[in-house]
Amino acid sequence: MNSRTKYILLILATTAFVLTIYNHNNELTETSFDSIELKYAKRFFGIGVLCAALYFFNKTWRSLVTKIMIGAFGISLVLNLYIFPRVYKTVQLKKIYYEYSEIETCAEMEKRFSTDLKNGKLVYFQFGIGYDIELAKTLKEKYKIKTIGMGCIIQSEKECYNKLLNEYLKENHNDGIIDY
Question: TM segments (predicted)?
Answer without folding.
Answer: 7-25, 40-57, 64-84
